[in-house]
Amino acid sequence: MTTDTWDVIVIGGGSAGENAAQYAIKGSDRSAVIVEAELVGGECSHWACMPSKALLHPIELAECGRALAGVAQALNEPLDVAAIPARRDEFTHHHDDSGQVEWAAGAGVDIVRGHGRLIGEKVVEVTAAHGATRVLHARLVGTDVAELLHSATTAIVGKVDLETLWHAVPSYPTVSAVWLRLLESRY
Ligand SMILES: Cc1cc2nc3c(=O)[nH]c(=O)nc-3n(C[C@H](O)[C@H](O)[C@H](O)COP(=O)(O)OP(=O)(O)OC[C@H]3O[C@@H](n4cnc5c(N)ncnc54)[C@H](O)[C@@H]3O)c2cc1C
Q1: What is the pLDDT confidence band of residue 168, given thresholds at 50, 70 and 90?
Q2: Which residue has the higher pLDDT, 64 or 152?
Q3: Which residue has the least CA distance to atom 41 on ligand 1?
Q4: How far apart are CA 9 and CA 92, in angstroms?
Q5: 110 CB near ligand 1 (under 6 Å)
Q6: Which residue's CA is minimally distant from atom 35 of ligand 1?
Q7: How confident is the model at residue 148 (pLDDT cuts 50, 70, 90)?
């Protein structure tokens, strides 16, 4: 069993996890790791947003064309039902997440493969697919950070002037700006 320490550990490398890890360390000397049990990129890249749009777009185009005089007669042939899912699979890179792993490396975010589980304060146990376990320690994680993030989200949704919460944060900042500010204040 190996043990490692990062400033920030993010469990789950979907869109949210990728962004959280990136913004947690952007422009700083902090370190971050994403623990991912399946594919880096998560649902959106591999199963949901991207493949669904790739699947639907050709059908939408054909439907539009068939309603358009001057084009409709050119679209009399039935759709190629093998080519459409094949196009979708190209968009998901056949569930190969190496491009996203490369992106993470470029952003300075490490990836640890396996199922993550909090086993103590700032301690995550990762169980790999083959059953081996590894313990990761975080310098910066826990309920305090979650509470701060919740406050920030509430402030944004309620359009509360953040001047009263954090100095030097402009009114209605982006989530990313608040997240960064919170990390800075906690580090
Ligand atoms: C058909 C469909 C189409 C959609 N289209 C759109 C769209 O066009 N635009 C849009 O904005 N949204 C769309 N969505 C919604 C979008 O997919 C989700 O909002 C988004 O993927 C959620 O991201 P996430 O990071 O929260 O979760 P996920 O993408 O689910 O990522 C979570 C990740 O965490 C990993 N994980 C979970 N538990 C653990 C653990 N204990 N240890 C390690 N790893 C773990 C999972 O393997 C996964 O990779 C669509 C959804 C569906 C179903």
Answers
A1: very low
A2: 64
A3: 116
A4: 26
A5: no
A6: 12
A7: low
72 and 119 in contact (C-beta within 8 Å)?
Answer: no
Whether 12 is in the pocket of ligand 1, judged by its Cβ within 6 Å, is yes
CB 138 within 8 A of CB 5: yes
Closest alpha carbon to 92 in 50, 55, 38, 37? 50
Report all structural domains of the chain as residue ranges with CATH numbers, in order of start: 3-40+106-186 (3.50.50), 48-91 (no CATH)
Q: Is 149 in the pocket of ligand 1 (CB under 6 A)?
A: no
Strand order in the sheet with 32-36: 8-11, 32-36, 109-113
The answer to pTM > 0.85 is no
Half-sphere exposure of 118 (CA within 13 A, CB side): 11
At residue 53, the pLDDT reads 94
Relative to the CA of 18, which ligand 1 atom is closest? 25
**Token representation of residue 43:** 């649902």
Ligand 1 close to Cβ of residue 14 (< 6 A) = yes
Distance from the CA of 12 to the center of ligand 1, in angstroms? 9
Contacts of 183 (CB under 8 A, 6+ apart): 8, 24, 28, 30, 140, 145
